[in-house]
Design goal:
Strands 1, 2, 5, 6, 21, 22, 23, 24, 25 and 26 form a 10-stranded mixed β-sheet that branches. By secondary structure, this protein is α/β, with parallel strands linked by helices. Helices cover about 30% and strands about 30% of the residues. The protein has 2 domains: about 325 residues, Purple Acid Phosphatase, chain A, domain 2 (4-Layer Sandwich), CATH 3.60.21; about 45 residues, no CATH class.
Length: about 425
Amino acid sequence: MVTIALTGDSFITQRLPRNEHHLIEIQHFLAKFDIRFTNFEVTLHNFDQSAAATSGGTWAAARPAILKDVEWLGFNILACANNHSLDWLHGGLLSTIDCLEKSDWVFAGIGRNLAEASQPKYVETKNGRVAFISVTSSFEPGHRAGEQRPDVLGRPGVNPLGHKKVHRVSKESLKALQEIDMNTEINSTRNINVKEGFWKDSTYSYVFGNLHFEEGEPGTSTYMDQVDAHRIAKSIHEASRQADIVFVSLHAHEMKGDQKNKPADFLREFSRFCIDKGANGVIGHGPHILRGIEIYKNRPIFYSLGDFIFQNDTVEKQPAEFYNLYELDHRHTTADGFDARSQNGTRGLAADTKVFESVIASFDIENGAISEIELAPISLGFEKNRAGKGKPKFADKEHGVKIIQELHELSLEFGTLITIKNGKGSISL
C-alpha cells in the first residue's frame, strides 16, 4: 500500500515561518504519507535573469532559498510545467532546473529539451515506485520545449498540451464572415503565408483571422491536440512499465466559457484519455480556485485542487512591463504595482475568497485500487493583510464544511458525491 497526499499550486515567493503552529500542523499531516505532491509555480533565481515581455499574470520568481521551506513542509515531488515557467525566459527556466537539480529534487514538466520536459520522474517508497508526468495546457507558443535533432539543440521549455478551439455558427453567420473576409484584409497575411509554404493551412474549419469557425449549432468546443496527447501517452506507457503507480499533473487555466470553476471540454477529454492510457489519476491545478472531482473508471480526476500556497502579491521584483500595465514608472515599487492591479485589494485574485480556500486530497493505493479519498479543507488566510495571506492552515469546522459543500456542488456534474466525515470530505469509490 502506498499513501498519497496531493495539493494544488504552491506559488511561494517568500520564506515561511517555521515556528507558526498552523504550518507545523500541515507539516505533521503531510509527514504521514509516502508521496507528498505540489505544483511548484515559481521560477528560481536571484533576479539576475531577463524577464519575458509578457508573463503568466505576475512575473513569478523567488530566491532559491525558498526550496528549503518547501522541503521542510515535506514535499518529495514537484510538478513544474505551468504558465509561469518562462516568465524569466530561458535563463530563468534553466536557473530553476539548476537549483532543483543541485538540491536533489524530484521534479517533472520542464527541461532543456522536449525529451527532458516530457520525461516521467519517479519517487521510491517502501511499498512501490510512483511515477509523475507534468503537463501544462496554459503556455505561450514559444514556451514549448523543442525536440532535439542530431544537428540542432533542443529548446528549453515546458511539456505542452495544445488544444484547438472551434466556434460553431449558423450558415448565415458563416456566410457573413466569409463576406467580411472577401471585403477586408483580415486573412491576407495568412493566405500569402500558406501559399508560400510558411504556414500550414487548416483543414478542419474556416479560419477568420486567428479564430476557427464551422457551420453548426451555435456554440464553442475545444479539443486536445492529438500530437501532444499521443506523445504524452507514450510517457504514460513508459511510466506504467517502469513504476507501480502513475499520475499525470495537469496545469490548466482554460475554462468552460466564462465559468472559471469548470474545466474546458478538452481538459475532460485529455484527463479521461490519460486514464485510458494507464494513469492511476490526474492531478489538476491552475485556475487558483477549486474545480470538481470526477471518478472515471474508479480513478480520480481532480480538475483543480486550487491553491496550497499563494503569495502572488509579494514577489520581490517585477520588470518594467509590469509597471507599464498600470501606467507606473521606475519611481514606483512592487507594492505600488500590486495596489494598482488589485485596486487596493478590491478586485482580482486578491479580492476573491475562493482563491484562498482549498483542500489537501489524500488516499491509499493498494494493488492499483483506491477505496476512499479524503479531502482536508484548508484556508490561506484571506482575512489577513498582504504579508500574512497565502499560507495554508486547516480550516475551522464551519469554514471547512463550507469549502467541502461547495466542492461537492462542483463535483455533482461529474456524478461524484462528497460526504462530510469528522470535518473532512470523503469520496467512496
